[in-house]
UniProtKB/TrEMBL annotation:
Transmembrane segments: none annotated. Pfam families: GATase (PF00117), His_biosynth (PF00977). One of its GO terms (molecular function) is glutaminase activity. It comes from the Eukaryota. This is Imidazole glycerol phosphate synthase hisHF. The lineage of its organism: Eukaryota, Fungi, Dikarya, Ascomycota, Saccharomycotina. Pathway: Amino-acid biosynthesis; L-histidine biosynthesis; L-histidine from 5-phospho-alpha-D-ribose 1-diphosphate: step 5/9. InterPro entries: Aldolase_TIM (IPR013785), Class_I_gatase-like (IPR029062), GATASE (IPR017926), His_biosynth (IPR006062), HisF (IPR004651), IGPS_HisA/HisF (IPR050064), IGPS_HisHF (IPR014640), Imidazole-glycPsynth_HisH (IPR010139). The active site is at residues 83, 196, 198, 249, 410.
Amino acid sequence: MPVVHVIDVKSGNLQSLANAIISLGFEVKFITHGSDPILETCERLILPGVGNFGHFVKELHSRNFVEPLKKFIQSGRPIMGICVGLQTLFESSEESEGTVGLSIIPGKLSKFNPSKKSVPQIGWNSVTLTNGNDEELYGISPFSKYYFVHSYAAIRSNDEINKLKEIGWNLALCTYLDETFIAAVSKDNIFATQFHPEKSGKAGLKVIKSFLNDIKSSPINNELKLNSIKNNIEKTETGLTRRIVACLDVRTNDLGDLVVTKGDQYDVREKDDDGNNNVRNLGKPVEMAEKYYLQGADEVTFLNITSFRNSPIKDLPMLEVLRLSAKTCFVPLTVGGGIRDVTDPDGTKHSALEVASMYFNAGADKVSIGSDAVRAAEDYYLNNNKGSGNSPIETISKSYGVQAVVISIDPKRFYIEDPNKCKFKTIKTNFKGPSGEEYCYYKVTSQGGRMVHELGAVELAIACENLGAGEILLNCIDKDGSNSGFDFELINMVKSNVSIPVIASSGAGNPQHFVDVFQNTKTDAALGAGMFHRGEYKVSDVKNFMTKNGLLVRVDNI
Ligand code: 1PR
């Protein structure tokens, strides 16, 4: 099997990239230090990076990679940068002033302007090719979608783009609302992508395959081109597609098997007339995740819903689920439940950062924090709107980047007559309360809805954004498992108070509900669980229906 060498500075999920390369028939070997003699002879190199620019460059320096990398590039052997790997080719980044990149490409990276759009950019966007869109660039097609997750980018004006082209850089560009940035770049033996090809489904695998097989350009797939223009599809403001997330609530059932389950308002036990009170068993997590990937899910989320139970850290049941799913699902994977400081039954302590690192190493791209986010937000307000620096949101986002930290909110609706009497953000509701109340607000809960806190959903979201969360998974206990559609009022209220992306969750019962949530709110993504698990609809049914209604979705044809 041909070998591909990958630089590993221990700063993120490289397992998914390795899995993608292996799935293409190659073997992967990691290089962890610049003194490794293999750098002198290896045929090609991949330089992947996630998280903070300064941290990544510092790691390259401390592992003596900088000079060997420059030498490698000068030798003319093929190298491919991914995400921060692309960013490192530039001179510097606003993210880490004073840090000098490899300076192969002139210029600096800057942060997206968050005034009109969610930052980070998380989701599937399309690219244009500056060579005229006739030839794919390393398999990159203007008619496919690629997965981006970043706050900083090489944002460039037309003049700047032309200057780079004049000095020989071949560029693929992406526009995120009002800012155009470099999505991919190539010149001679250098190729790099800002998006994650290993997380971009079949379209992304094609890009990696093209690099590994030295296919720098190839004719555009005309079928894709025709498909992309034949429908009367919206052009979204941001350029991003409407993201569909499949969510698997996972727990051990009464027989000790790890199963996908689904509750009604978080109660996951059957209530049969014959007294059956078993945990609802809807299937096996790894198989179901792969099924949803193949059906076109843009993302798969696993929630360990019995995370409050203490088990030795080496025994975390979800780790194996992540490891196996990352081998077959080439889209982002999120894991939640139990991301907090833990103590093993034998008294050994582990930080939340340690727990999260285990999941990232197993193949997770993001971790989702529920109960501990509530605790951190309560502390934040007690501490005059300041973080302690030690909460899991802060420690994990500092090491892995804000895009790796999702907070999962489990809100419950409460009605009130007079909004002035409520210390939390309220809304005038279209669905009056039991005594005709015209206003409502949402209190947050923890421990899977068991504990209700004196904290509003909006207040939780704002605190967590300030602490360093990069995305919000917005559940709704009242709607969970109801098949009655999403709670637009809650979604609009939270979304309008934060600038990070929001995933709407709870209540999806049919494809129309997904159309409705995107048409009635500004949500960035929508999540479904029960309707997929019960086999009533496939993810592709939802996407086909959305397409019929003119909404832009990712279809993974290559
Ligand atoms: O508190 O950090 O350990 O995280 C625990 C995680 O587990 C949280 O994300 C919490 O939402 C989740 N959780 C805990 N208990 C339950 C339960 O159901 N008993 N599941 C639970 C929450 C919510 C959704 C669900 C949607 C969509 N599941 O993500 O998938 O409501 O369902 P639907 O489309 O069928 O309506 P921590």
